[in-house]
Amino acid sequence: xxxxxxxxxxARVLNRAHRIFLDKSLVRGQMWMEFPPSxxxxxxxxxxxxxxxxxxxxxxxxxxNETIKMYLIEDALDMINxxxxxxxxxxxxxxx
Length: 96
Description:
By secondary structure, the chain is mostly helical. It has one domain. It has three helices and no strands. It is globular.
């Protein structure tokens, strides 16, 4: 079996986060711009807490729960997007 293509694997994860951004933008528009960068930090912290709690649940089970994994992955992909929003706001000179 050939070694994994790490660059392609990474791009696939980033593309999944981008797809979530596009899909949610169709419904919500660009609401992330209505709140300051500090809100993105709060959202990131909330997602980290969710990941910690959910990961502890699946790490110690005999049979991993696929639903919990799905939610963990979605929260992690959301974190990528919130980090991108944070970066964009900082680069635009926004604060608060």
